[in-house]
Amino acid sequence: MTDPKLQRQFASFIEKNALPAAFINTISEHYLPLAQWINQHRPQHRSWVIGLNGAQGTGKSTLSAVLKIILEEDYNCNTAIISLDDLYLPRARRKELAQTVHPLLQTRGVPGTHDTELGLQILDALCALQKNESLMLPRFDKANDDRLPQADWEAFKGPAQVVIFEGWCLGSTASPKQELAKPINELEANEDREGVWRHYINQQLQTAYKALFARNELLIFLQAPNFACIHHWRWEQEQKLMARSIPGEATQVMSEAGISRFIQHFERLTRQNLKQLPALANIVMTLDKAHQIVHCHYQNP
To answer: Which of 46, 162, 199, 243 measures 20 to 30 Å from 104, CA to CA?
Structure first.
């Protein structure tokens, strides 16, 4: 890595995101080769939508942001990032679902709590953008648990040669109904005794989310060692969110106990993805317990 401008961008990114200085080695050893691979394989005359899956805290947002820096700086490849998290339904809409379908749908995260139609519209619009045309990308404020007003969305100027679509459940598939019968944690056992919530999630994966995920032409999977790591990594995320919050402002940043309950919402699908996605993804980046990438496997699209 000899480009001084790129080095400065990486140094600024590492400092801004409070990453360890040694993270530059991850960029050199894994992110730069991945960006080169993407540039070599992407179509030359249209947009390429790349899905990025990883459990909470695996580094999806970090990888997406660094790939954008490299692709744009080294390869002149205009890159858009859209996060599944930014497609969450507004808090009022989730309240309606909680009242009409199941109380657990008030909590953002699982399939059924995103605006999949908006996701399809945004992906299609990104792929259709011409030179100098702009599109406003939705943004969600996690600290206040609500979608930001459109005036605060982020503008992207086309064309989008690469679109990185990242989310914790991208590529997840529905399960046979019999597999949903037995609760897998306290949340399901105590708060979804009849299985209404988990069957609703499964039905969403069979329909709206299947259509949304079909937009991905390539899937990258950040593979955590096991589900036990997710609590620790998710709590690290929340501490960073807490540190960025403005003192005195009302927020919904969670405590560690809150995180423990929160991640149970995602446990079933996360465990399923850890088993299924390594065989389905085009690129698998395997992480160890220290969050380090220890192996990358590439399979041509």
So the answer is: 243
Q: Considering all CA atoms of the chain, what is the largest pairwise distance in Å, rounded to the nearest integer? A: 59
Domain contains 24:
no
Q: Tokens standing for 224? A: 């955590």
* Residues in CB range of 28: below 8 A, 6 or more apart: 1
Percent of the chain with pLDDT over 70: 94
The answer to the question of residue 36 being in a domain is no
pLDDT at position 144 over 50: yes
Q: Which of 181, 230, 228 is nearest to 202 (CA)?
A: 181
- Distances in whole angstroms, Cα of residue 24 to Cα of each of 15, 30, 295: 11, 10, 17
The HSE-up count of residue 183 (CA atoms within 13 Å, CB side) is: 15
Task: Give domain status of residue 8, yes or no.
Answer: no
Q: Which residue has the higher pLDDT, 242 or 202?
A: 202
Residues 30-40 pLDDT 10s = 999 999 999 99
Decide if pLDDT at 158 tops 50: yes
Query: Could you tell me which of 13, 114, 138, 127 has the C-alpha nearest to residue 70?
Result: 13
Average pLDDT of the chain? 92
Q: Does residue 250 surpass a pLDDT of 50?
A: no
Query: What is the number of domains present in the chain?
Result: 1
Task: Examine the pLDDT at 245 and tell me if it is beyond 80.
Answer: no
> The tokens of 253 are what?
């940043």
- In terms of Cβ atoms closer than 10 Å to its own Cβ (0-12, 13-18, 19+), residue 53 is buried
CA-nearest of 148, 164, 110 to 273 is 110
- How many angstroms separate the CA atoms of 165 and 158, rounded? 16
Q: What was the pLDDT predicted at 260?
A: 81
CATH number assigned to the domain comprising residue 178: 3.40.50.300
Which structural domain, as residue segments, surrounds residue 252?
46-288
Contacts of 104 (CB under 8 A, 6+ apart): 98, 110, 187, 191, 192, 197, 265
Q: Quick one: which of 4, 6, 7, 67 has its CA closest to 31? A: 67
